[in-house]
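HUMAN: Quick job: go over this next protein and say how the chain folds.
***
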Amino acid sequence: MLCCASCTDDIERTDLSATDAITFSVSDSQEWLETGSRSDLPSVTDPVIIPLGNSDGEPLYVHVALQKTAATFGDEPKSRGELLTGDNFATKVTEIGLIGYKYTGTTFSFDGATPDPDMNNIKLVENVDHWEAADKLLRWPGGDDKYAFVAYAPYREGTADDITAGLTLTFDNGTPLFTYKCGSAVENNPDFVVAYTDGISTKGSAPVELNFIHPLASMKFKASDDFVACKISKLDITGATADASPFLAQGSYRLSGAADAIGAWDAPAADAARIDMGLTIASGSEIDAKGGNDIGSATQVFMAIPEETVETTSETAPKAKIDIALNISGVSVEASPELPLFRIPGYTTIYTISNKNSITISAGTFEVTGNNVFEYTGGTNDITVTSTAKINDSDTEVPVGWTTAFDTEDGTCPDWLTMSEPDAEGNVKIAVAPQDKSTDEAPHATILRNTPEVTDYDLSKEGGASKPINTANCYIVNAPGTYRLPLVYGNAIKNDQLNSDCGLGEDNFIPAAKSAEGVVNPWIPEADINDAIILWQDVQTAMISSAAITSDKKYMTFSVDKTTIQQGNAVVAVRDASQNILWSWHIWVTDFKPGDDNLIPVKQPNVTTTYNAMPYTLGYCAGPNPEYYPARDVTITFTQDGTGEQKEFVIRQQYYEKAINNNTPFYQWGRKDPFPAATNVKDEADRSGIYIQRSGDGYVKNCIYAEGMNFTTANSVNSMALSILNPLTFSTANDNFWYGSSQIESLWGNGGLTSLPKKTIYDPSPVGYCVPPEKFFWESTSAINSNLSTKEAKGYWLYCKENDKSGLMLFVPSSGRRNSGKISEVGTYCMLWTCRSASSGARRFRINEGAAGCGGLATGTGCAVLAVKEQ
């Protein structure tokens, strides 16, 4: 978007502001320029090099290259012969012409159309931050009609046939027809730009965006950096033969009324008048062509009516004779080489005079920046590709081209994404189509059942036999098959070694794991292990079965059935001969696959750390019949011409899910084991049998329990040792500290306000993740995306980039909490634990529509956990 300074100093303005005024914004665009293969067009990194002559015995050359023309505005007489950019726009443009058409129906056609009487070639001027009609107040009329707008510059009042000024506007059966005339003197030919847009509701209020393109071709000359002193006394472009002048004297450009093909130049007649073109250089006023600079002033650029296309090659391009006279460091040179002519709309041909017959390329700047994230509804974002290089050891960086490749099967752009042609400043529009809603009533279960089965998959090694062991209290299962997990205390092994930060062997952290000699053993003693058991799973048809102990008593094994696998949770355990539970583990069955590509970066205001969060709370399940829009992404590899440098840019369209039955397990602070989720849904049809009403407890997840076992509450579970023995018992002991009368700060590592904790054996997170610190969380409801966080969504979509309403979002379910075993605030509040202890319990995060922030809460309360990546 062009940043245009106000031109109110140049024109007396009357305040025409009104809330229903029709106003306009301006930008440059290459979207409507002719596209095609440009691999054969010469560029600064691959120019056509042609001998020019000799200077004091040293040969000279002309390097011919093309680059995109700045698609911006022209005004006359200030901008005659000058290419206009965002940098000079404010001083060169005071007036834009506008034609408006009102129409009904879905599509607009110029054929027979009549301009709106109030917008029939009127003048627009700039007023601070927008453009508006110069002499009248245009108001949105309302109704069901639509507008199509044509804008152009330089503005031409009326429809006079005099074309000596360079540009005339007429109408051909409703179609705007621009007639452009070139003069032989370069500095008298104005720039010309045009914009078209349609489908604008007559009820509109926002400024109408006008994206301008540059229909003309242009040429300019440069001097090489190698020249210390160079003066030009003659520079003309003439025909290769005496009777074939290279430029059309006049051309007609007509609009098509289609955004993807805004207009085209009429084919010239066979006998169309043609002209030569050159710089006007008075005797004694030679142009000082300093090394690396354009030859001549900004107004000495050759403008031409296009006659070639982007398919033109240096071999097929017509030739023109360049008559040039120059003096390099006191040595005069006159030459008339024949050079290829590329009169392509929207492109500038650069002829660089050099003493080198080859080029060397060194790195300059190559960056791809912009918003790469899209909601499920799709949309358009702008990205910027900054691509420059240094040619022939010059200190000056010049723009160079680049190519793209996609990580799709055939390397081409996916059909749900479109990229515009880059404009002259490297800006590219990325458009992403809306994602289709899944028609599957159980989309997550379908994904899981379609995933290939695994065999003897070691959860501590991510299935790879050669990988190191990393243990946890929670393991994620993504596929049916057979699994094993090591019989190790929680997070006690990290990269095959004892995790020295986990606390094992210390008070409150299984002191018996430390021998009399002080050696800590992370493995559960083999002599104590008797059998394995599935304590519970929160599904109605069992998906996990066959829990067993390996013969060496080092591993537990179990199976996940292909026909019944679905999103769900289970807790498995090993017992001694007296059926006392020695340790238990959470198995989270989900189609979410942890990995850096699937994490959500969270950066809060005034916090320097960026945390990488899981996109779901631990154990999250969507429940039956969710409204689900899958995520999708594509990696674009940008490769710079000449240097071969590459940059990857990932376009991500985030998933969206509206699941009234979504649910997530509860955790008491400091405990490793989850407890079944709850719901506030009252309709039996919505509960679909997945919830059951417990006396005084509300609706809780209907689980399959091991024989003789069930979810219970008791105040007798009042120590860490008893919590390990009773993973199904929700403690209702001491109000502030369920585990005893005094505070134990380090059960979940007790990280600082911003620092990540040291992961203890009780941390409930999967391998590589931990419970987050307090400053990971939000302090304001301004982070809520209210459009997505509907009541039916049963949770909140939160902006993650310092509350900036761009970038990835994170969904947190309104899962409520358990108090003394009873559920409350389900469907209203999201309650998430932090890793920090507090004098009256522990710190928790809470958010609803009206408030967000962290505060203290009794450790015996059941809340959800959202894990972040470890250090």
Observations:
- Residues 443-449 form the longest helix (7 residues).
- Residues 24-37+48-358 form one domain.
- The longest strand covers residues 379-391.
